[in-house]
Structure formats: C-alpha cells, structure tokens
Carboxypeptidase (Dyadobacter luteus), 497 residues
Amino acid sequence: MKKLLTIGLFCTMTAFASFGQNRTIKFDTDVVTKDQVTIKGQKVAYSATAGNQPVWDENGKAIASLFYVYYERTDVPNRENRPLVISFNGGPGAASCWMHLGYTGPKRLLIDDEGYPVQPYGIQDNPNSILDVADIVYVEPVNTGFSRAANDSIPKSKFFGVNADIKYLAEWINNFVTRKNKWSAAKYLIGESYGTTRVSGLALELQNSHWMYLNGVVLVSPTSLGLDRGGQVAAANLLPYFAATAWHHKVLAPELQNKDLTAMLPEVEQFTINELLPAITKGGFLEPEKKKAIAAKMSKYAGISEKVILEHNLMVPAPFFWKELLRDKGYNIGRLDSRYLGIDKETAGERPDYSAENTSWQHSFTPAINYYLREVLGYKTDLKYFVAGQTRPWDREGANTDMTGENLRQAVAQNPYLHVLTQSGYYDGACDYFNAKFNMWQMDPGGKFQSRFDWKGYRSGHMMYLRTEDLVTSNEDVREFIKKTTPKPDQPAKYSR
C-alpha cells in the first residue's frame, strides 16, 4: 500500500555526547506514515508516528528525548475515545522492539513458527495485532532504542533506578496523553519482564501524582515485583517450571509424559505447596527417609537424578538445572526459554556458558527493527539503536524500591475500574510461570480482587508470542481483556456490597 509521509519538527536539534555517543539528538520531532493491516479478517487502516518527545525537568528544561512509535487506527469515528495501550519492555535497559515487532504491533519480524531466525531478515504483517481494538504506543526509556539524555552532564540517577524510572516516565506519559488528546480514552499499561516492575509502579504513580486512572495492567512474564518469595519459597517454587521443561524435552516417565502438559502440572503444583515447601523449611532436621522420598518425587517431576537433588539438599538452582537436564545428550537449555538448546565447551559445570535463547532473539530482532524504523517508517538518524544493556548501574535503593507489586495492589484497591492480566510461558526459567501465579496470590491476600486478577499460560517461554500458536492466543487474551475492562458509558467506578 502507498504510504503518505509527513515530517514535523517542533524543536531545534542539538548535538551532544549522550552517554558516550556524540551524534544528533532529536528532541521533538515525528515522521508519520499511513498503512493498513488485515486483523482477524478485517482491514484496519492506521497511521504510524515515529517520533521524539522531551523529558522535562522541574524547571521546564528538556533533559532527555524519548523515542516512541505510536499506532493509531484511522478508519473509525471518535478516535479520541479509543482505548490506548502504553507498551514497555524491561531489562532494565531493554528496548521496546521485542513486543513492538514480536507481539502486539501491526508488523512482525520474520521468524519461523517456533520463533527462530530466518533469512533474509525482514518484517511481515501481523494478523493478530491488537490494533483493531486499541491504539498502541511503544516507549523507549532513556538509553534504549534511540532515546538519550540531553548531554553527559545530566546525572544518570535522573533515569537509572526503580523510583527515578517510574517518576520521569509518568511525567512523559501525562504529556503524551495530553498531546494525543487521549484523556477521555480507557488506558492500559503493558510491560514485559522488568517492564512489569515498571508498569506496576506506574499504575500507582499515574493515579496519585497525575490523577490518571487506568483500566488495566498487563504483566507479561513478571518479575517478583518486590513480593516476598525468597529463600525456601524461591527454591520450592521452581519445581513446576522444571517439570514443564522436562515434559517438553520428553525426559519424564511415561505416566507423566503421556499426559498433556496442563493435565500434568497441577499434580506438581500441589506437591510443591503441600510437601516440598514444608520439607525444605525443615532443612537439616528433615528426617532422612522423608528427605529421600521427597528427592525421589522431585526427580520424577524434574527429570534429573535423585542423587544431584540430594546433593543440593532439595534446593536445586535454576542454572544447574539448565546445565543438567540434557547434560548426557551434550546440550544445555535456555534460561528465558528452555525449549532452546545450546552447546558448551564442556558438558561438566554448574551453569551454561551462554544464553542460547537470547543470542537467537538478538539475531532476529536487531536487523528487523533497524530496517523497519529507518526504511519502512522513514525515521532517519545516525544514532545506534540500543537493543539492550546501556542503563547500568541501576539504583534499587530507597523508599518503596522494588515494592511495585504492593503499589499495583494499592492502585487496584483505589480504582474499581482497574484489572490485571498476567501472561506467562511455561518454559520461562527467569520469570517462571508458577512464581507469576504466586505473585497474583500474594497481591490479593484478602481475596477481594479475584474477579479483577487473571492469569494465562502459554507453551513457550519469556517471549511467548514468538511461537506462532501462542502469538494468536496471547494477543486474543489481551484483546478480550481490553474489551472486558472497557466500561460501558453508564458503568460507575464504585464498590457495591
């Protein structure tokens, strides 16, 4: 389809050495293209704005420029009332390209049905995008994508930390919503990995500091969100993920392997809660016969030997599991997606040499996002697109730091409209699915919000949407979540007895 190109420039461009890169920074500019995509059999016309919007300090001075891509459906009336989804990735330090070109946007990178790179690199239409039901903006925090601080004299502490990140991004969102005339729209935050820490904190910050009330928060592969699940709980809670991964690699005994994944896992989850956690809690005072029986059951579910489980006193570290599961076959498995295989220098050792899944993802996403932004959306810059890793050190100190799960709980309590959807891949070993369920349970200790919290699982890993089958179902789950939580015109935000 022919694209119409417009360019807007509102601020002069200035050259600075932003955290080591002396290239031109655009503070307030955009490039707009027009296109269409067929979603669920329906043609959807849209505009795509690739632009920059400043971050202002308390004195009204631009201290950074955030790059974003905004998709707005153009073939519908009352566009100012269409739901708005604000999308963040994680890291901290990960660009937005992952969910942008992998998940919810109207274009998707070229990969095979299981998510592996194919050549030639490029993009294709995404027939599962949520653009049919909501406008979407993908935001790049400072030092991700093309976003940069104004100059090297700006303290990194303004941006690189749990609280600082939430504070400046909330200000930026306020400005964006105002500029795009979306105050009357239902609003949603979606975050992946560390992005779930970010959006959980933003939910309360937007309410309390900007009087912006959300309709939904989507947590894709959530972190701990600061909820207490350390020590013995952390060790026990890994077992369901171990079992799912062992099932995928077909190393379980027939009585378990012959069951479907979701038919097998409830048994493991119940064992984890009712037997494994109490056993680990007793530590060295657990009776030897009981310890051996627990290890035997763990071996049955995890696909690794009773011997190595006993050597770890029932507390098997995830890195050891990634190395051990297929050690006899000469492979390790991926951290973020344990379907992926890697080959180490030596089969011996306590952890893999590298992350097999992450190298595969960098391989496919980096050329695709650079091609798409520069050649398809027409955004021209000499800045390097930072895919990841440019935001260290990250400050986790201070009041309410890494307690964003409690922030999200409080936001839900204050706002009867606010709902939460959690999405997890069964084979994610970094932000595993059972701990994501545990998060949800702990965020609602009183049991008052069960109708407003939901969890969905998928047969892939951290980026569940890279597998085509899960791309379809995960997008549909988000689509239905938006439809369900967008209130009717006469529906008040209130509690009723």
